[in-house]
């Protein structure tokens, strides 16, 4: 039976009717905040002064990029936190995923247990770590003393380096499971025949890892790292609970800095400008990342 | 050969053990702390890994009856359930439209949804703070019901778009030729096929809003309006004094709903977490 084309065509209009409200809502949710922040970023809206504001041109942007040492410092802090976190999560995640893909017994349950840190509230989990790092009654100090490994009750959050190490450690603990699950899915999508033919051709397990697994897993790895990188630029809860940006602002990330500027100092316009600088930075990073990846793929092909 | 294979298998499992310990130790310690008596908790010579002086439920009873933890949990539940329901509904309709229709700007919408993921939270919550003030719902849990969908809707839409694309168009076209309307086709044909996607979107929306912190911290502060994450981290710390027993009891109770959901829907979680990387 042939369908009258007109009947189907007429129906094409129906979906617009019920899709429009949802799409308009999404547009409002996306476009309005972006536009309003953009407008704000050229004003001098400061709630601690008053509700009035006027146009000030690019003053907020020049302040952020040139004069605001605290912001520039927070960019570096974010980079310093992101790099080791990403490397740690990728390497650990890959290692665990490889082990899991070979562990035949009880894989679902082991995977589930390993993934719990990524599921529960980051803030609650960070609290558990905060307690373990505690000066007087923390498990780490107490155990260290009792085993004779530490000779003082060490304040882990008193030095910049140890604070960064602690934040990176907790971040790796919390988000390695994500990388592990992504990479495990990637590993499982590699056809077994490839390994078999590699073995037939006399490849050692190490060789088949370097020449079969890694090249085929590369795309998954890139995507996983990119998602984590974007998430890490928003790192807030962990800092809030563990260090509150201290000591002396040395663990203040861009997200934490903007929060303080906007909701503690009430400099709304300046916070908006900072946010836009961050978006542009993240966007550039993402695009560069993609471009490098594409060029490499083109060269490999 | 068989023996060597067995040894290798055992070695693989043994190698996984340290990672398991690393992943789970904080939860073990969290639970242990919540059950310790204060006397043992603040005893520097007590071994932190076990309970030697007897367990107690004191921290739990104190948390439940002496603080407003129950109110915070109720707020969390209310906000989470409402925001999740709204977001999955809106996300379903939007994702269906984006996945099925070809119209002007459809790609721009897709990109726009991805961009919301890139933007720092601060960029969204500055304008949202204004909206909340205009609406007169500052410092109220309704502010959260209103603002959580701003990140949940794009997320659900993006996740569900992938699922809708896997349903062959012909299935609904057949139904529509037989006289079903577009809405009926979506409701009767497409949605039943995409139930796993819907469950996945709902689970993630639930988890994201239950665990949400920065909006809750910014938009609410009164003790009868805040959510569990904010309540536990703000009201159980007075200046430099941390009420560790109650804090950890709160952390355990706050994690339970997520862990229970997670145990029941593990496969959905995995498919949701890896959706971006695999699709």
Please provide a written account of the structure.
The complex is a heterodimer of chains A (301) and B (279). With 301 residues, chain A is an all-alpha fold. Chain A has two domains: 1-38, no CATH class; 70-300, MetI-like (MetI-like fold), CATH 1.10.3720.10. Chain A has helices at residues 5-11, 13-40, 59-67, 69-102, 107-119, 122-132, 139-146, 160-188, 192-200, 205-232, 237-242, 254-263, 268-300. In chain A, α4 crosses α8, α4 runs antiparallel to α10 and α12 packs antiparallel against α13. Chain B is an all-alpha fold and 279 residues long. Chain B has two domains: 28-66, no CATH class; 75-240 and 257-278, MetI-like (MetI-like fold, Orthogonal Bundle). Chain B has a two-stranded antiparallel sheet. In chain B, a hairpin with a 2-residue loop joins β1 and β2 (241-242). Chain B is globular.
Condensed summary:
The complex is a heterodimer of chains A (301) and B (279). By secondary structure, chain A is an all-alpha fold.
The CATH topology label of the largest domain in chain B is: MetI-like fold
How far from one another are the termini of chain B? 39 Å
Which structural class should the secondary elements of chain B be placed in? mainly alpha
Mean pLDDT of chain B: 84
Return the structural class of chain A: mainly alpha
- Give the largest interface: A-B, 100 and 94 residues
- Subunit arrangement of the protein: heterodimer
Tell me the distance between the termini of chain A: 47 Å
The outline of chain A comes out as globular
Question: How many domain regions of chain B?
Answer: 2
Low-confidence stretches of chain B: none
- Fourth-tier CATH superfamily name of the largest domain in chain A: MetI-like
Chain-averaged pLDDT of chain A = 85
Q: Order of SSEs of chain A, N→C?
A: HHHHHHHHHHHHH
The largest pleated sheet of chain B is described as: 2 strands, antiparallel
């Amino acid at each position: 039976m042939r369908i009258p084309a007109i009947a189907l065509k007429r129906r094409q209009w129906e979906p617009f009717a019920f899709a429009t409200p949802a799409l308009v809502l999404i547009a409002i949710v996306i476009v309005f905040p972006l536009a309003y922040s953009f407008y704000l970023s050229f004003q001098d809206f400061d709630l601690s002064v008053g509700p009035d504001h006027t146009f000030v041109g690019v003053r907020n942007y020049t302040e952020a990029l040139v004069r605001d040492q605290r912001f520039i410092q927070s960019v570096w802090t974010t980079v310093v936190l992101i790099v080791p976190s990403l490397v740690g999560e990728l390497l650990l995640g890959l290692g665990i995923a490889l082990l899991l893909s070979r562990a035949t017994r009880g894989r679902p349950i082991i995977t589930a247990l390993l993934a719990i840190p990524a599921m529960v509230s980051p803030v609650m989990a960070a609290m558990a770590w905060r307690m373990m790092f505690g000066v007087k009654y923390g498990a780490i100090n107490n155990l260290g003393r009792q085993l004779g490994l530490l000779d003082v009750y060490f304040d882990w959050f008193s030095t910049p380096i140890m604070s960064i190490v602690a934040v990176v450690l907790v971040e790796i603990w919390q988000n390695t499971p994500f990388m592990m699950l992504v990479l495990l899915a990637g590993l499982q999508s590699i056809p077994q025949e490839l390994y078999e033919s590699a073995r037939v051709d006399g490849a050692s397990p190490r060789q088949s890892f370097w020449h079969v697994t890694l090249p085929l897993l590369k795309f998954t790895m890139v995507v996983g790292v990119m998602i984590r990188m974007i998430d890490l630029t928003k790192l807030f809860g962990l800092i809030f609970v563990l260090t509150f940006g201290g000591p002396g602002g040395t663990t203040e990330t861009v997200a934490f800095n903007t929060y303080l500027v906007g909701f503690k100092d009430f400099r709304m316009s300046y916070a908006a400008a900072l946010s836009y600088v961050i978006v542009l930075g993240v966007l550039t990073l993402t695009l560069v990342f993609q471009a490098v990846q594409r060029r490499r793929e083109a060269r490999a092909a | 050969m068989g023996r060597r294979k067995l040894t290798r298998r055992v070695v693989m499992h043994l190698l996984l053990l340290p990672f398991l310990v690393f992943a789970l130790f904080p939860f073990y310690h969290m639970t242990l702390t919540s059950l310790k008596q204060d006397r043992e908790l603040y005893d520097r010579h007590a071994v932190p890994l076990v309970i030697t002086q007897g367990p107690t439920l004191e921290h739990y009873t104190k948390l439940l009856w002496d603080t407003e933890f129950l109110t915070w949990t109720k707020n969390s539940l209310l906000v989470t359930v409402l925001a999740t329901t709204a977001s999955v509904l809106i996300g379903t309709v939007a994702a269906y439209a984006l996945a099925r229709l070809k119209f002007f700007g459809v790609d721009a919408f897709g990109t726009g949804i991805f961009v919301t993921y890139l933007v720092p939270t601060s960029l969204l919550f500055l304008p949202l703070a204004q909206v909340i003030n205009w609406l007169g719902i500052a410092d109220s849990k309704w502010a959260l019901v209103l603002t959580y969908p701003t990140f949940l809707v794009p997320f659900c839409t993006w996740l569900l778009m992938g699922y809708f694309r896997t349903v062959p168009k012909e299935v609904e076209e057949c139904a529509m030729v037989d006289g079903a309307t577009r809405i009926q086709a979506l409701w009767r044909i497409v949605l039943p096929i995409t139930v796993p996607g819907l469950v996945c979107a709902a689970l993630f929306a639930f988890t994201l809003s239950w665990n949400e912190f920065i909006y809750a911290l910014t938009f609410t502060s009164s003790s009868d309006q805040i959510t569990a994450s904010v309540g536990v981290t703000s009201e159980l710390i007075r200046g430099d004094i941390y009420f560790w027993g109650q804090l950890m009891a709160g952390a355990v109770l706050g994690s339970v709903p997520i862990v229970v959901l997670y145990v029941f829907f593990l496969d959905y979680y995995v498919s949701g977490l890896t959706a971006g990387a695999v699709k």
